[in-house]
TrEMBL record:
It comes from Decorospora gaudefroyi. Residues 550-559 have a biased composition (Basic residues). Gene3D superfamilies: BRCT domain. PROSITE patterns: BRCT. Residues 200-241, 461-529, 548-599 are annotated as: Disordered. This is BRCT domain-containing protein. Residues 560-586 have a biased composition (Basic and acidic residues).
Amino acid sequence: MEDTSMLEASQGLFEELSFTIYPNGLSEDRLRQTEHAIAGARGTLIPFTAPKGRIDKLEEINYIVSETADFPDYYRALDLMIHVVKPAWVDASLKAMKTKNPRTYSPDPALFMNDVVICCGNIPSGDKEAIEGGVLAMGGQITPTLSKQVTHLIALDQNDARCQLAISKRLPLVMVLPHWFDDCLRVGRRISERPYTLPDPEILADAEPGAIPPARTSQQIRDATTPDPHNDPVAPPPHLEAPRAIKAFDGKRVKLGEDLNLNSKLRGIIAGIIKAGGGSVTTKTDEADMYICNYRDGADYIKTSQARKDVGNLGWLYYLITHGVWTNPMQRMMHYPRPRDGIPGFDKYKVSISSYTGEARVYLENLVKASGAEFTKTFKQDNTHLIAAHKNSEKCEAAAEWGVNIVNHLWLEDSYAKSREMPLTESRYTYFPARTNLGEVLGQTEIDRDATEKMYFPKFPKPAKASKAPTQPNGVPASSLATRAIEPPAAEKAKRTKSAGNLQTPLPPRHTDGKENQTPGSRGAKDRALSKLHDAAPDIAQFEKEMKRRGGVIHGGRRRTADHVDDSSKTAKGGRDSVASKRSIDEVDEDEETEDEVTEIPAKNKRVKKDKLTPIKFRMLISKDARWADNAEKESKDKARLRELGLFITDDFKKVDIVCAPQPVRTKKFIAALACAPMLVSTSYLDYALKNNKLPPTEKHLLEARDFEEANNFHFSEALVRAKQNKHRLLKDWTIFCTEKVAGGFETYRDIIEANGGKCTLWKGRTTTVTASKRKRNPADQDVSQNQIEDEGDVLYLISDADKKEFTNWSKFRDLAAKHDMVPRIVKTEWLLSVAMAQYVHWNPEWELSEEAVTADAKK
């Protein structure tokens, strides 16, 4: 009875609503099923007319049902406020007996979460609200309960009750950390879940970044890598698409532009294929339904574009011939005509790429050239930009040394799509998610329709003054091709900090306009009103960045420090002139395509004084040396001189040969760098090198450490021998917990632990969201555990402060240890600092914290 009543209640659901079903991508069975469902709910079906691929009586339609946004009337439908929904919307509406929100079923590719249904596990309520709101805003769906419809379960640990339920029920979903959603939001694309998947997410696995997996060729760039096809077109074989699908040329008249420079033979081949597909070739612009050309200029291009006809290049035409089905030329970068002079400002750039192979490499090379920049197969010091799929490559390391901008491909795609250079101050262009190959999301950016119209074919161009607007050879006033204010990009997403060892969930997104659901790429008066503000955004962002440079151990923020741990000495990063070096790299990508080597800068560049520069001999980390304080220019020059001598100054404490300091210090950088077994020298080493223009023997400038060693009860000489044995694995297989407000900051101890191969987890007293396990003890394994003799294996450590406010955290930590059959040990920060400096695990009862001791001290 219940099923019958539900059916009866839904029978009139679509009454007074009209629908058209777009057939591409739908099987015949699915098409008929959707038609019957709409008719059964008393909806009106307006047939779709296939010959020209247009929808009759578009103004009378309420809903267009389509699996894709790639059909001719899509943008016109949006302008008319007509909903475009996937067939699943029909099913969901009938099941719920009410029309569902069409946004969450939109095929718009900008709504990159539109196939995602999430359910949140036991995560903080504020984080849960932020994630659910973000998923809804990006076209996804949320549900409070587990079901077969859930695609992603967001949790901090597989011990979460809902994770266990999903496992027991064998639900076909993915269990991921909240960090996955965080990174999707930061990049503006749906990235691979693999590095974030429970129970053992790769982003939390090791201190070292590890190998980045190769990316599969993105479907968005298949047959769309070049605007100039190299082979003649071949008529396609019969296709198996739905019988009512739009045919590429059926009833269409195609005009081939003069700037294609086709010979008569090739024109004849193309005309024959178009005719065989039911179309024809015309020489009259007014008659044409499609216009094919190379460049975004000329009277024919402007006229057909203003008339909203299909305008594409030869690559697009060949794509239609190959696949036989219509597609929007603006959907793929290399299917739309190029700007003849490139993107304004790109002509001064020299761009190379790293870690892209095969079709992806060809696509990016052609996109760089189409933008007007110079593409270089060889990466040199005079390159201005390196486009990388991830930062785990030697080219990225060289770019960091030389001060070359390292960006992901989104910067290039967005600049090309919007016909103007996008600011590098926008974080999404310089962000690289851990263990992720961004080649997976290559080609998902579409040409910006409004920006292209404003730049190249405005309906009402401003009148040009004769003296300032010379006429181009094609008869188009230069002013009509000038750069104009263009719509701002999609609203900036919430900026949240993610750390590999931190299980802190994302913060709530903040929208400046107060709206929760903000459509990416939306158009209208609001966007145009914001254009002036957007133009100033790079300057504002740069100003804020400069204001935040001083202070703190990470992220430029100021953090509370204690006398025994500080890291206030931050060296300012030099510009591209700050480093001069020679690199020689033969970087081979995963498909065995060899990238050209990274070489020295050409001799014609005046900044380089030598034809061949000295390779790096030593990487030096400097701590607590104030020689360059408030003098960035001197720092830049001195570092350049030292680099020419083979000494590279770095802040990367995970890869260091020499540590230089005025005396032994207890800073994060100094202590973490000891895991590298570096040579320890005093600042006199730098004094000598800069004065004599050569590197002195390190043994003549050793760091004086006698008093420090006596005070801390160890010897650096012995510690460095042990560090060499440990190979960054002193704390391998250890999970050490740390409270949030510990003196010196959680990040300080996390970095020290990770530098020694361990894992550091933020402790907030939530026993259900974290796990712990005993360490395997094998004294015979001299490669790993030789300096862990005093490790009992079953002791669980929590680094904290002697503060009564932490008592609750301690109690819950003991519960966690008991849950995993381990011995809880709550320790002062001194324990970790002593272990890391001496490079062996040892114990002193004075380091242990207890409520009794803290209470007793408070009474004194």
